[in-house]
Amino acid sequence: MIIFKYAEQLARYIQQQKTAGKQIGFVPTMGALHNGHLALINQSKQATAVTVCSIFVNPTQFNNPSDYQLYPKTIEQDIAKLEAAGCDALFLPAIAEMYPRGTAGLEHYDLGYLETLLEGAFRPGHFQGVCQVMFRLLTMVQPHQLFMGQKDYQQCMVVSRLLTLMQSPIQLVTCPTLREPDGLAMSSRNMRLSAEDRQQATAIYQCLTHIKEQLNQGVSWGVIKEQAEKMLTNAGFRIDYVELANANTLEPASDAQAAASRMPRVALIAAFLHEVRLIDNMLV
Ligand code: AMP
């Protein structure tokens, strides 16, 4: 695996690969890699000839300074995992490479209502930061296909919107969420959980499963939501949201009309265990 610190060198490498007729797959990450990330690498390897991964903890997408400071960093292990997974190139830029003129006063993207609900409402500025870094990464890498995880459901929709705004031909491939044996969605932030909180954390998955079962049995969303919130608070969570949304638009889809129309729906949860914020979702 070739490691690039500078966009110019990475772009030259990618141009060579493209000239040789190769398709480029790209997996952007913030490091502290787990099997969920490696599943994206595998999907990219199956679909394209050259897989490029990036590791960059993007400061502009953190609305909470201590979350940024405490974000896990395991670069040596990450490199070993990517080598073992057969990743072809790793882009490992410094902040100055991504934001040569600093991070103040950066461009603003029109994300419409997507930015006003769920993660957008609870993490002001987060999706602007995601777009700022993704625009730069996509311009530098110019892949044919981009692989991202359903774990970050709303982020996939935001990036899809960014690709439209960029009039980009890049194909976004959304990959299923990898889970621990007890159902907890794999996440770099899980490393920050205490042993006790790690055990409690599985309540999010249990909640999502419960929501799905109860909806299938025709129980009303108001009742289910109350049960779900109780399950989470009993496990020690501080809840940001437990919502049911139209899977295509993320607009609220909890009423009887939505249920009757059989539109695809997704249940989404964001909640804190002490200082660690976890998110997960499930199509229902
Ligand atoms: P992150 O490093 O958290 O920014 O994640 C990098 C990419 O990996 C994003 O597209 C995530 O959605 C994806 N990802 C994170 N966790 C998982 C998981 N458990 N299963 C599948 N993909 C994931």
Task: Please describe what this structure looks like.
This protein has helices at residues 7-19, 35-47, 65-69, 75-85, 95-98, 119-122, 126-141, 153-165, 195-200, 203-216, 221-234, 256-260, and strands at residues 2-4, 24-29, 50-55, 89-91, 145-149, 171-175, 237-246, 265-273, 276-283. It is of the alpha/beta class and 284 residues long. The protein has two domains: 2-175, Rossmann fold (3-Layer(aba) Sandwich); 188-283, 2-Layer Sandwich (Pantoate--beta-alanine Ligase, Chain: A,domain 2). A six-stranded parallel sheet has the order 1-4-3-2-5-6, sandwiched between helices. It has a three-stranded antiparallel sheet with strand order 7-8-9, with helices on one face. The chain is globular and about 55 Å long. The mean pLDDT is 97. The structure holds adenosine monophosphate. Residues 29-30, 36-37, 39-40, 148-149, 151-152, 175, 177-178, 185-188 line the site of adenosine monophosphate (AMP). It catalyses: (R)-pantoate + beta-alanine + ATP = (R)-pantothenate + AMP + diphosphate + H(+). It is an enzyme of class 6 (ligase).
Q: Tell how many strands the DSSP assignment holds.
A: 9
Mean pLDDT: 97
State the strand order across the main sheet.
1-4-3-2-5-6
Give me the number of helical elements: 12
The first-level CATH class of the largest domain is given as Alpha Beta
Structural class: alpha/beta
- Summed up, the domain count is 2
Q: What percentage of residues falls in helices of 4 or more residues?
A: 40-55%
Largest sheet: 6 strands, parallel
Shape: globular
Small molecules bound in the structure, each named once: adenosine monophosphate
Ends: how far apart? 39 Å
CATH architecture of the largest domain: 3-Layer(aba) Sandwich
Function: Catalyzes the condensation of pantoate with beta-alanine in an ATP-dependent reaction via a pantoyl-adenylate intermediate.
Keywords: ATP-binding, Cytoplasm, Ligase, Nucleotide-binding, Pantothenate biosynthesis
EC number: 6.3.2.1
Pathway: Cofactor biosynthesis; (R)-pantothenate biosynthesis; (R)-pantothenate from (R)-pantoate and beta-alanine: step 1/1
